[in-house]
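go over both lines:
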Amino acid sequence: MGGIHPARPASGSHRSAAFPRFLKTHLHPQALPWHREWKYIYLARDGRDVGLSLYNHIRTMAEEITAAGKPVPPVHSIPADFGTFWDQWVETGKPRWDFWGNVASWWQIRHQPNVLLLHYADLTRNKPQEAERIAHFLGCEWDASICGLVCEKSSLEYMRQLELAGKLGSPDKNKQKTGLVNKGGNGRWKDLLTEQQLKRYAAIAAHKLEPACAEWLHHGGHIG
């Protein structure tokens, strides 16, 4: 579909692309076309992990843009200090999207038959099980051989190698480090956020999300 971050949508690419066709986006469901025959998969992650992952991603992208001799756009301009970035992001979502509103909007439609909500923690705990859930949701065939292939090609190491080879993210084949695929671990924020910041995060989650949604966002698990 024109790359992960195409400069502009390729005209008619969604119609000419081979099956299965997919679109990856960070949009709210209200901003997307809605068709009953389409399948929508939403992947959520603990907001504390999201904040740190986003910070590292933006910093790396800004470094690459600077190294290329280009001006850094506002969407990639963030404070050098993670704590300062965090305080702004957790309250407003800047410089990107409204994290809390995004989670809440997908949670509201979780029981739609063509919607599947997944949690990053579940994928890391038991990828084969979650991959099978996705396959059944999409109506795809599934067996042990397919499971092994899917788990291998969705591994962080495999995707890092693709990015370094210029086959994922930017087409630069001389990358020395990955910017799109980082460590992928959970809980790395524990040594970076203060007790006050964690309390503020919990307070915002309680205010912005339904109790069951906040609990799910924190721990994961299948939604009944």
